[in-house]
Amino acid sequence: MEILQILGIEAHADTDHTVTDVQQLSAIIKLRVQWPDGGIEEIPYGINPKTEAQKAAFQKQVNKAWDEYSLRLRAWDVAYSVGEAALKDKPVYQEPKDLSHENLVRMAVRNWLDADNALPAWVPLTPDEIRAAMPTVTARQLRHGLLNVSMDEADVEALIAAMPDEEDRKRASIDWRTANEYERLHPLVVQISASLGLTPELVDSLWDFYRTI
User: Fold this and answer.
1) Cα–chain-centroid distance for residue 101?
2) Is the pTM of this model over 0.85?
3) How far is the C-alpha of 121 from the C-alpha of 204, rounded, in Å?
């Protein structure tokens, strides 16, 4: 994978936007990359702080490279001392590079930050943004769940029939009769909750429970 461009970095709850060591960065990086077959694609790539195990594994590579260099250097010393090797052939130590996809992304991020780009600060989601992202429940789950708060289908139909706005009444009736699943912030769900005097936080808990029915 060749990184062509960093398109941006998503704010993330675990991302410290003041971090200076990219090895400690946790973030979603938006990339434009080119694959070995020549295809170009825009992808999100998640990175997390390197674990001690990852650091130890790379140090093991470094130690191995140093041991191999030391052997080559000793062999060269012997050959040079008897005139069988030239000075220009003296081995030079090269530390191994971590060329994993993750490290390539980290290096690209480092360059991106050095070009005066900034990590975004994390702004917590609002309660409604969290609710909008909650999984849906099926019509069956919702109907079973309503029984747990002493409300059945007839009660919902009466609630719909009492809606003052004719357009709202028609749309709610269609949704109640034909929808296969419901979102947490579906207007009908919000209205039923309000009619029962349920707080949004309690409905959140009930919603999680409904998904298990």
Assistant:
1) 16
2) no
3) 27
